[in-house]
Amino acid sequence: MRRALIALTAVVFAMPRASGSQEPNVPTCFDCGADHPRVLLIGAHPDDEDTNLIAWLQRGGRASTAYLSLTRGDGGQNLIGNELGEELGIIRTEELLAARRVDGAAQFFTRAYDFGFSKSAAETYAHWPKDSLLDDVVAVVRAWRPDLIIMMFSGTPRDGHGHHQVSALLAKEAYAVSADTIRFPVNKFGSAWTVSKLYQTSRFQPDSATLRFNVGEYNEKLSRSYAEIAGESRSLHKSQGFGALQRKGVVWNYVQRLESRVNAATPAKAEKSILDGVVPRWRDGTDYGADELVPRHSALEAIADRQYLAIGDSARIMVTYYNRNRRPVTVFAGLGGERTVEPDSSTSWVTYMKGREITQPWWLVTPRNGDLFSAAIPRAVPGVGGRPPSEDVRQQNDWITAGAMFGGVHLAEERVPAVYRTVDPIRGDVQRPLVVVPAISITLDRAVELARADVPFERFVNVTLRSALTKPAAIRVLLSLPPGLAADSASRSIAIDSAGTRRITFRVRGKLTAGDHLISASAIADGRTYNSGYIPIDYDHITPQRLYRPAATRVRAVDLRYAATVNVGYIQGVGDKVAPALQQLGIPVTLIAPGEVPSIDLSKFSAVVVGPRAYDAHRELIDNNTYLLDYARNGGTLVVQYGQYEMMRAGVMPYAITISRPHDRVTEEVAPVTILDAASPALTAPNRITAADFEGWVQERGLYMPRTFDERFRPVVEVNDPGAPPNRGGIIVAPYGKGLYVYTTLAFFRQLPAGVSGAAKLFVNLISSEARGFAPTQTKAGSQ
Fold it and tell me: pTM score, two decimals?
């Protein structure tokens, strides 16, 4: 059979949806030919794109459209799970690709790793070398060859986020230099390209717009408006909580023309269309959307006999071509000839796919270089036809290809991924892409864990094994431990079924000295040793992915103390891994669902902790908040981690705070921390906190920090980014009735899972009974 390697194409609509349902076969600009006008939108993050504008351009047949996101959103937060960092980047990448399958556009990224919020372009460029990022943007411009670049932001401080500013600055510069073959040689960046026009979206500042258009226009062929399509697309950013209405009726969109090389003599406000002055690229005059005789309803399907294919093995693929048109279609695909497929008929054949290399996010195959991914982004190939390699194409490992003819004319080849198909009793038809994995995958639960130093250590170490073999296998699992620890057995022998998953547990005991220690595992099967594996990342709205990592856990042993009476009730928040970190330190933790608060006897806990953004994520927690305040009033310690503007609502906190817009945050994880009260129990009991405990923090110090607060709150620390005013809202504490209320906006939700020992000591102090030693303040601590 003819098999296609990765083709230079941007056919995102062929990617399978997680649920297995098929996208409607509707005309988009990919049906219009390679010479159709092209537009490139440029932003910083996966959710920065203007979905209304993309749908109006792409699904409306006005221009082939692509979105370039500088980052994959790795530094953001997660409303649907506890994945952060590179794991979140995988989710947000797939959400963006899912959005593109709805609106039909192509998707690009640069090598930039989202290191978290940045306050300025200068701070951002300290993490991302400007020349490297400009290289990437120029490469994408030359690959996509847009007539228009549309910036999502202005490139000025009013953009707020430094990443936003940089995305616009790079877009402007790429517009200016994309044709410069001396600075950007053709052999490295592809053939020179001159962009005709530069625009900026004005959706949030319509007064600055030079052109407006109705993106709520109804499309009869699609039976939907572009705004409705955009609402569906936008709602796929579920990890960021961006569910959107599918709006009907007139919906205005606005853009501002900044530069033009083709109709500069026409005043910007006199334009009738953003494509004014753009010379059409097509030459044959064909109305690609009018010919109803061209088959548009054929479908290619490739069903694999399994979901996971071991490296070196081969999977059987049943390929079927369905002709849903009113006329016969001739299909050829290396079948030893041609087959005529009548209307409402199909033809099938069998092929085999061999597992040659692991299927994984391509940008994570090699380690990051600081805040840049090291894998090269797609480049245009000089002299090679076809569409450029966008993000979706980078993930098209050995797609199945079939060609067809209609009336003696060769049609564009159809390409689809091989998928494994099952029936779920609840979801129905479920399809998962065939992926190549190690024959045996072995992983531990976490890459980083905390422990107490120089006290008895007892922990269950879970080892997960996944087999991609087609027959049962005998496996020997070995556990490697650091000095001071011993397991109930050094190795285990188990049997695992074909395509099976097994989880085995070692009981490990001993003591660890302060510092870092490594626990690792390996599996031996059929004479081969495996010491790495994958973590599935699987949500219903995205194509499943896998994050590979060594079968090892770095254990950070911390010298800390707490009373034997500590007993914590924990209400989880957003992207929240704090509770497991406390359990690793030996602290008893009981998870409390927000709706269970009224029915739980909170008095049995020495402290109740509310996770980050829990009030934002769980409306029932606001409804039940009086029970938490009563718990503190009656003598408990209530520790609440940061929230957003909902924390200013009456009844959420015992005393008032104000959070500015935009909110105060300290993005420099090395920003100096000033201790305001060295005698504060938060800093002395049961663990003494010093400046050294604020070293080694990751990504940020704090966020959504109160600008002012009621004088009954006592601040503990003061911190600020260079050049910013000091903020005392990192930890504020107030006696409340017989108990204590603690509010902290320090980023403990990032520090504890990362094994930051100083943050662990400080958080343990906040939940300890000694914290109740705070006395009411007599000063107006809220003045800042």
Answer: 0.89
